[in-house]
Please model this.
Amino acid sequence: MYLLGLLSIMQMVFIPGFIVLKFFRFHLESKIQTLVYSFGLSLLINYLLVYVLTVAKIYKPAAIYTIFLIEILLLVYYLKKSTQFRINFAVKDPADQFSSFLKSNSVYYNILLLVSFIFIILYFSYFFSSFGSVFTKWDAMVSWNRWATSWAANQLPTLTFRYPQLIPANWSITYVMIQNANVQLFAKSIMSLFPIATLFLFMDLALRKKDLTYLVALIAYGSIIRAIFTPGLIVDGYVDIAITFFAFLAFYVCYSNEVSEKNILLGIIFACASAVTKQAGIYILAVMIAWSLWTLFKNRKNLSLKKISRIIVSMTVIVIAIFLSWYIYISILIDKKIEVSEKGGISFAMNSVHGDRNLGQRLIYSFERLVQEGDFNTGLVFGLLLFFLAFSLFHKKSRKITLLIVIPFTLIWGFFFSYDNRNLALAFPFIALSCAYGLMVFFDKLIVKTRHQRQYKFSLLYLSVLIVSVTVFLNFTIYSKKNLTQNQHEQKTQIGVPQLNKFLYNYEATHGFKGKIFSAYQYLAVLPELKHLYVPLPYYEKITVKKHINGILKMKDIHYFLTLKRRIEPDAQELINKKIKKGEYIPIFSFKGYQLFKIR
Model:
């Protein structure tokens, strides 16, 4: 079973895509391109294969084994012919090569390259640490994996709410090949590869173009993903990072390579893959179609009318075969009331988060939630990103990305889909790239060369703009009046002995204090919502029978007694124990010597 499971992973992430690349003789400029293109194409090919086999009712182990055997034979044939994957043992000393590489780059480039490798290693650690685990998150268990088991059972999934099926269809391949839908580790293992593949695309751009801008983008993207997604979400069955990968891959194909028929069509293919991963991919498909048509129009003098027509027809066929084949099918079922639309769920989610807020209020509140959520402070990360995003408009290479993808998609998210921060994921690599260019523009203006070649001076104007912009952003987000008040309140509740405070607040929340509390716990005097209940016992006094139990505790407004055992005289402790036995004092909780009693 284990061997079959590993083979199923290879089927999902490499084999069919590599064969297609070789069959159509794509000219790829690096091994990274080969690996990442193979990864993306394999997932799409598997989806289409599973779809066709299931519709034909022949999606069974025998069919998959036969196809896999044919693929292995083709793989061996193409690997034998390929020069990219041959191992050459007659290489120079690796240390010399590495040293020469470092010397050929600037110090800044090498530092960023090191940080980039650390990010890639971090995301690889998520892959290795999660390998062998099962799906644990809600969406993965009750939706995506349920649909995968339907595919594996040779049935089209039901109750999909129009959600496309590229990821579940791929997971099902593992279940069919090992003939066991209860073993989930092989299906789950591919999810942590999506952020790694996206980081590889940035790294490929940086290495091929010798431009540290892409290393900055890589670091920014890795930071954004980690700020929004916990490691558990990154490796589990949420498809948001998968759609991010396909969206950026579609853009990358056309952005980083020469204009050609193959690259235009490959970009459309990956955009379609994004659209059949999750509905948000429809946006990037629309952008890529418009981008491709504009590219054809710009290059009309270099391309014949016949070739332009052929490309447009091919694009249309690709969109129909990959994208519309699922959405038309599921829309027909929804119209016939056989399936249920996702609109009701989205409306409910939006209303539960935003209520009756208008579009502008939704947008502002969405950004507040975005910078406040996460397992560490994401506010500063997004504050800086927004600042440098503005500067990206002054760079030719990033202006279109910001105006066509980042801003429109972010607005759509803020207005209609901001009930979950994950829904913004498609924009993250584009935000990272635009901000990296914005950073370059900013430092071009901030750091001005003087007459001496190696001397620089800071532009006071741009430094002031940075400080003011970040301060204004912080004033309305992290350090807004509401957030400051809430943050200070939460910090005050941790003063003194935090766990003891927690017990007190829990009791207040569940039962409510009916009177005042007599205690030597002096921090009660400053705890929000509790300080008005505090009747102090001086820190130098011990609890005695005469003064305290028979004296102060007889006061009618004191209903509770918070003691510390070492501060009680023996005869007083004996009397307290007797009152507990008689039911006059009711113990509420005890913690590290502290005891809270209800005395009336």
